[in-house]
Fold:
Amino acid sequence: MSTEQQPDVTARVRRTATRLADGRELIYFDDSEPYVSGAATRRLDDPRPLPDRYAPVVDADGVAHPVTGPELRLDPLTGEWIPMAAHRMNRTFLPPADANPLAPARPGAAYQDGEIPDTDYDVVVFENRFPSLMTVPGVDTGTELVDGEPLWQRRAGVGRCEVICFSSDPTASLATVGPRRMRTVVEAWTDRTRELSALPGVEQVFCFENRGKEIGVTLHHPHGQIYAFPYVTPRTQAMLRQARAHHETTGRLLLRDVLDAELRHGRRVVLESEHWVAYVPYAARWPVEVHLAPRRDVPDLPALTDAEKADLSTTYLTLLRRLDQFFVDGDGGAIPLPYISGWHQAPVREGRDVSRLHLQVFSVLRAPGKLKYLAGVESAMASWISDTTPERIARRLQELA
Amino acid sequence: MSTEQQPDVTARVRRTATRLADGRELIYFDDSEPYVSGAATRRLDDPRPLPDRYAPVVDADGVAHPVTGPELRLDPLTGEWIPMAAHRMNRTFLPPADANPLAPARPGAAYQDGEIPDTDYDVVVFENRFPSLMTVPGVDTGTELVDGEPLWQRRAGVGRCEVICFSSDPTASLATVGPRRMRTVVEAWTDRTRELSALPGVEQVFCFENRGKEIGVTLHHPHGQIYAFPYVTPRTQAMLRQARAHHETTGRLLLRDVLDAELRHGRRVVLESEHWVAYVPYAARWPVEVHLAPRRDVPDLPALTDAEKADLSTTYLTLLRRLDQFFVDGDGGAIPLPYISGWHQAPVREGRDVSRLHLQVFSVLRAPGKLKYLAGVESAMASWISDTTPERIARRLQELA
Structure:
């Protein structure tokens, strides 16, 4: 690619933080002048009559119940913390099926059914209104026993669940926003990772996107989510165990050696740029799976250089476009891939010395119209079986280069 | 319940083993005289022209490829073995969509599209024709490196995948087969656990049932599956870690103490019989989840007494019938619950001293027509979030008593 053709992926982000009517934080990340949203001269207030989210909930008998937020229970069988999100049952508001709460407010219309109180935006992040994890001020965050039973441990489900909108255009997708906007998304992920990592009790920040009705997404507006967990998730714990054992034996980073092995043989490498490599992992378990890793050892998104982020902004788009051509229908038309895409970052405190940033993108689509279901073997035993081989996945992605 | 009303759940099982045309084992478990299948006087041969399943596969160029069976790859990121079932792509036979390969052969009709070469049966078990795990005679079972890379370990996917048909009636379900037939199913599970545990390389036997199109079941004939794994599955490994830690601290069995705590408080106990207790676990993660455990400490199904198996045959039916009333539609009609039901048994060798048998039954149905999808948090991070509380699940199951 010549210099002339290089897309403009300079970070030019104007960050404007505000609050929604119920106290939730909302942050605009604008990249296009004149900044369409977030400017101090524009409307920033959320006019909805939402009650403060920390205000006590009054029941039918007029009794006020303090908001305690989600509860975490420790599963004694597995040692995993399970958030109980039943407080979300207290939902007072559900948008009509045809409403899009992620669309910008309509000019001139009464603003009522959307979450974003401006008539346009580039990228915007806000706290989920019905979060699985939420820090409620003043709530005790210590672990306690239920009924005095040592096997029944609980604590407050502190943390955050945020929504990130990649575009104000409800018909766009992350693959079509262009490198400049992707760069803004990368800046927003980086910002959120940095800020959420600093919140009390947060142990891990996870930026991810669920796309497609096949995985239960009912809102087609292009968006992702960001979770700030108060524990290290089970998959990350498994990866840390492996990475620590490898480090003890070899003195090296596991994911560095994984990347080097892939580069040495090349069979499953599907995309290379100056700073990034995409490959199908040796033991890929999903019908489509690819990992995107930086060439340099970095623990998380905030550790990336400007050059690495600029490169990522074009490389990830290339990868997403290929994934959207992975399957074709009977007429040879590309089938947009339902996928889950998530950033594996070093936890906030634990295991940072053995962690290495990578993006995992995968799909449950086995073939047009055919899904991999997670039944007994996967759901009851957490044991995966691949219906294909990593080499077949890689060959298809290489064909599309 | 008076003695007069006690159902007949005596074990009266006639076991007849045979082979299908391609060499797979098929075993009839008959409980009703005159034994409708499996009698030596009846047709037992499979007349289909199936090639021996271990015979070399000849490709389009006339080149013969030896059958090597499924491959296991060790995921370096998590330490988990992943079977690569791409050999299943060599399928030479797929039943037409309207055929039921689990139905008995039709009397008088040319037997061709079914797996069971008899005109009737009570309970039957046979090796899956396209298994994810299969022991191929003569194949080296040692671990080797691919391309000499220490991070790329592979070995043969030895083991077995079996199908168990609970009834010859395609419209039946396990909940409706009656206690006598359920007893036969329990005997078949016990038999298979005992036999498969003795196969070389098998580390864990898992008897389970997937029911409902919501979890991808396309064959509605009442059936389950039995997997003989050549490794201890990730969930079992997690449970062993917890059980060992508990045993080291207290000297006691973790699942004994879990059961005792549930019985002490009773809030989540939904069913009690002489030998069995069903409860919703403290940190249940699924929208519907219940565990059924014996009162006596036993590691696996073969360790159960006759009395415990007889009791199980009625108790499990009671539980399944309640689960099929858990959700009701708009007219108050019960909605048959899509569910996964699996027996957690002690592995063959490892951790038998800290394991305790229990059945886990759970569903992805959150509400009529609403599924819990496993998206980014569950599928990428293996972290579960409950959309309800265990106490709500228990209250509903208690209501149905």
In short: The longest strand of chain B covers residues 204-211. Chain B has a mean pLDDT of 90.
